[in-house]
Amino acid sequence: MAGLPLLVLVTVLGFTAETPGWTSADLAVGQVVQDGRNPVLTAVALLLNLGFGTEAGVVISVCLALFALVVRTPEAVRALLVVLAGWGAGAVFKVLVHRPRPPGSGSMLGLTGETSFPSGHVCLTAAVAVAVWVLVRRGWVIAVGVVLVAGQMFARVYLGVHYPTDVLASIIVVAATSILVLAGGAHHDPRASRRALPSYSG
Q: Is residue 199 assigned to a domain?
C-alpha cells in the first residue's frame, strides 16, 4: 500500500533534514521567503496561523465527530478519521524526529514550541482539505484546498516558524495517512463491495 512507503520516506527525510548542510539550505530558502514580508502577506499568514492552530484543530475534530454521530454515514466517519490521522501523525513525527525550530530571530510569532518537523498547521490544513473533499466531491473543493494548503505552507515559512522541508513533509504525511484511511474505508464499505460485484440478469 502506497501510504506506508510514504511514511518511511517522511521518517528518512526528517532525520536527513537535521544535517548541517540541509539545514543551511533550508535557512537560505526560508530567508528568501521572509525577505518579501509586507503588511498584506503578514495579515494573511497570521490569519492562517489562527485558523488552523491547535485550538482550531480541536474544534474542527469535535465538530466532525458530532457530525459523524448525527449523520452516521461512511463518508462522515472517513472525514473524521482523515483529520485525526493526518494531524495526529504529524504530532507523532514531531516527537520522533524532534527537529529544532528555525532560529527565533526570524520568527514573527515568538515562542511556538520546540519541534519543527513536520508543520502541525500544514498537516491540519491539508487533512481538513481532504476531509472536505470526502464529504463534498466537487472540483471546486480541490481547487480551494490546493490554494489553502499552498498558502499555509508559504505562511509557516514566511512567519519564520518552520523550514521549507517541514511544510513539504507535512503534505507527504497527510497524503500517506489519507491513502491508508480512504483505502481501508473503501475496502470495508459494503456499498463499494456491491458496486464491485458483477450484475447478472439471470
A: no
Dist. CA 68–CA 192, nearest whole Å:
19
CA Rg, the chain, in Å?
19
Q: How many helices (H) and strands (E) does the chain have?
A: 9, 0
For residue 196, being part of any structural domain is answered with no
Chain segment 108-143, per-residue pLDDT in tens: 998 777 899 999 999 999 999 999 999 999 999 999
Q: Look up the domain containing 88 and give its range.
A: 3-186
Q: What grid cell was written down for 181?
A: 484511511
Residue of 114, 89, 109 whose CA lies nearest to 156: 109
> Per the structure block, which three cell numbers stand in for 48?
492562517
How many domains would you assign to the chain?
Answer: 1
195 is a domain residue: no
**pTM recorded for the entire structure:** 0.88
Angle at alpha carbon of residue 167, lines to 82 and 2, rounded to 5°: 50
CA distance 56 to 168: 21
Question: What CA–CA distance (Å, rounded) separates 71 from 54?
Answer: 26
